[in-house]
Amino acid sequence: AQSVTQPDIHITVSEGASLELRCNYSYGATPYLFWYVQSPGQGLQLLLKYFSGDTLVQGIKGFEAEFKRSQSSFNLRKPSVHWSDAAEYFCAVGDSGGSNYKLTFGKGTLLTVNP
Amino acid sequence: EAGVAQSPRYKIIEKRQSVAFWCNPISGHATLYWYQQILGQGPKLLIQFQNNGVVDDSQLPKDRFSAERLKGVDSTLKIQPAKLEDSAVYLCASSLGFRVVSGRGVTGELFFGEGSRLTVL
Predict the structure, then answer these.
(1) DSSP conformational letter for A20
(2) How many contacts, defined by CB atoms under 8 Å, are there between A and B?
(3) Using a CB-CB distance cutoff of 8 angstroms, which residues of chain B are in contact with residue A42?
(4) Residue B79 — very low, low, confident or very high, per pLDDT cuts 50/70/90?
(5) Which residues of A have a CB under 8 Å from any CB of B?
(6) CA-CA distance, A80 to A61, in Å (whole number)?
(7) B82-86 contacts: CB < 8 A, separation 24 or more?
(8) Segments of B3-115 assigned E as strands
(9) Given this model, what pLDDT does residue B103 score?
């Protein structure tokens, strides 16, 4: 069964600083990988996704993520963080498809942005 | 395009009472999911429907939780009787499934509603 590990429970950065959120996955085949963001009291919003091809994927709000098969990682990055980026971030892995296609989520990383 | 709708947004009940949550997925999405998100944790899948059939309910506590998706559109998740540990946000999501969509590339993402926050006292 697939699983996702987000090693950092809570990260604090200053506004304007760069950001990297870590994600490691466990899956036997080609993984389908996602990053979602959740603001307080809201549902999950998709930031970006990776299925195949270019290992560096661009998402919304200036985020990008890099798939590294050798490290089983899919880290999320942003060059300059804005105060509005404060939220919880979830990495997820999808299985290979079929009628029971579903996503398995990590426990999340809470991002705090200092002014 | 309308998103996934859920109601109620908030519900407070006492233990051993019952509660029901409703979800209306995005039009045309055959797959519907209910996830449970306990404070400080990631979403955990409770049940998955394909049209009106259950695909996966292996994580659903069937002694107290039930769900249905009549006519393959709306869905209801019920808890009876509720326990303290059921306090969580219940997220509904829908999806086209994993496929190539003309003009949009490969899909596979889930679209989430805003969730229903349950507090059991």
Answers:
(1) E
(2) 69
(3) 114-115
(4) very high
(5) 4, 6, 32, 34, 36, 41-46, 49, 51-52, 90, 94, 96-108
(6) 11
(7) B82/B13, B82/B14, B82/B15, B82/B16, B82/B17, B82/B18, B82/B19, B82/B118, B82/B120, B83/B15, B83/B120, B84/B15, B84/B120, B84/B121, B85/B120, B86/B118, B86/B120
(8) 5-7, 10-13, 19-24, 31-37, 44-50, 53-56, 65-68, 75-79, 88-95, 100-101, 105-106, 111-112
(9) 63
Can you give the pLDDT of all 115 residues of chain A as single tens digits? 789 999 999 999 999 999 999 999 998 777 889 999 999 888 999 999 998 888 999 999 999 999 999 999 999 999 999 999 999 999 999 876 666 788 999 999 999 999 9
**Residue indicated by tokens 């009549």:** B70
Are the Cβ atoms of B108 and A46 closer than 8 angstroms? Answer: no
